[in-house]
Amino acid sequence: AQSVAQPEDQVNVAEGNPLTVKCTYSVSGNPYLFWYVQYPNRGLQFLLKYITGDNLVKGSYGFEAEFNKSQTSFHLKKPSALVSDSALYFCAVRDQTGANNLFFGTGTRLTVIP
Amino acid sequence: GAGVSQSPSNKVTEKGKDVELRCDPISGHTALYWYRQRLGQGLEFLIYFQGNSAPDKSGLPSDRFSAERTGESVSTLTIQRTQQEDSAVYLCASSPNAAGANVLTFGAGSRLTVL
User: Fold this and answer.
1) Do B42 and A46 touch (CB under 8 A)?
2) Mean pLDDT across the stretch B55-69?
3) For residue B84, is pLDDT > 70?
4) Closest approach of chain A CAs to the CA of B34, in angstroms?
5) Cα–Cα separations (whole angstroms), residue B69 to B16, B26, B33, B53, B78
6) How far apart are the first and last CA of chain B?
7) Do residues B103 and A49 lie in contact, with contact meaning Cβ atoms separated by under 8 Å?
8) Residues of B whose CB is below 8 A from A105
9) Which residue stretches of chain A have pLDDT < 50?
């Protein structure tokens, strides 16, 4: 079975500071991993994905995520947070073999404080 | 179309009524997904289609919920005898196909309020 855990409902960070939004996953095989963002009153948007290869994935708006197979994690990071990064962030996983569904975590609300 | 279109954007209904929510995916996308997002909560998987077939219906909460897709295009999510706990935003997404690392493109959602 596939599952995703986002252990923090809320993350607060000061503008200019680095941010991390945590995600751990569980799949029977190798994972495809994704981050999506939901800005206020807007639809979900794709940020980045991990397929294979380099463990550090770079995405939109200066975000990056690090795949760690031993810790089954895919934490989202940004070196310097902007107020405009405040949004709801979702991690998602799909097993590379078997079911083609995409499972989402419960989301983490990021608030960047000016 | 250029994006995923959902209608209605807002629906207010009385408990016990039936509702239909429509999703028009990106042209050529063979995979279509329905999710539910209750207020302040995460995305709850409902069902996905590959073409007109639904390989995974495991997320449908009860037999009051059903979905169909025709012509590998438009999909309709039907909720019969609505209950207050059905109040949520229903999100539709499509992707080129259901396999691999294909990215989902989401619609703006249909907000359902059951009084």
Assistant:
1) no
2) 92
3) yes
4) 11
5) 24, 14, 11, 8, 11
6) 33
7) yes
8) 42
9) none
> Which of A51, A100, A107 shows the shortest C-beta gap to B98?
A100
Tokens of B17: 């009524």
Least confident of A12-16, A38-42, B71-75, B108-112: A38-42
C-alpha distances (whole Å) from A83 to each of A96, A110, B64, B87 are 35, 10, 42, 31
CB A65 within 8 A of CB A48: yes
Residue A40's closest CA among A110, A113, A91?
A110
Q: Is the dihedral of CA B19, B43, A47, A87 positive or negative?
A: positive
B92-101: pLDDT as tens digits: 999 987 777 7
Q: Between B39 and B36, whose confidence is greater? A: B36
Q: Which of B104, B105, B110 to probe the A interface (max A CBs under 10 A)?
A: B104
